[in-house]
Amino acid sequence: MLQEFEMESENLNIYTEFQKLIEDSCVFTKLPSRHYQRFHHDYLKFFFGVIKIEIDYAAKSIELLAPKPFSSKPLTCYNVNSSVAATVSYEDFEATLLGCMEDTKYSIAFYRHLVREYRHIISANDSSNMRSA
């Protein structure tokens, strides 16, 4: 019982840290840093389950290239020629990213990975920028 509680608490912490990462990544004027752009790309590619994604921050759109037909088997091979393209438009990028968050074991595990990877990269980049200033 205690172990379940600790696991739920850890998942909540990851979920909260991921929300914070999203919020931090959406503080930009024209374009986010290249690290945050890569974070957005990785996160949305995971969420939409697509093979290619392009984010146009100025046009407020996300271009998706998805396998067709969608497969319930995530490791299934597909033919790129049978893919389908779609565009998702948004008004508020941060709200869009936060709205994509899911509370599943698989999602939490992926969020844990992204938090570890991007917090480390961004912290290291911030430190080197501070030293060169």
Give the helices and strands, then pairings.
Elements: H1 2-25, H2 34-48, E1 52-56, E2 61-66, E3 84-89, H3 93-99, H4 105-132
Antiparallel strand pairs: 1-2, 2-3
Short description:
Helices cover 56% and strands 13% of the residues. With 133 residues, the protein is of the alpha+beta class.
What does this 3D model show about the protein?
The chain has 133 residues and is an alpha+beta fold. It has one domain. It is 56% helix and 13% strand. The protein is built from four helices and three strands. Strands 1-2-3 form a three-stranded antiparallel beta sheet, covered by helices on one side. Helix 1 crosses helix 4 and helix 2 packs antiparallel against helix 4. The chain is globular.
Spell out the key features of this protein.
133 residues; three-stranded antiparallel beta sheet; alpha+beta; 3 strands
Strand content: 5-15%
The largest sheet is: 3 strands, antiparallel
Helix/strand class? alpha+beta
- Overall pLDDT score: 84
Helix tally equals: 4
Radius of gyration: 17 Å
User: In terms of per-residue confidence, which ranges show pLDDT below 50 for 5 or more consecutive residues?
Assistant: 128-133
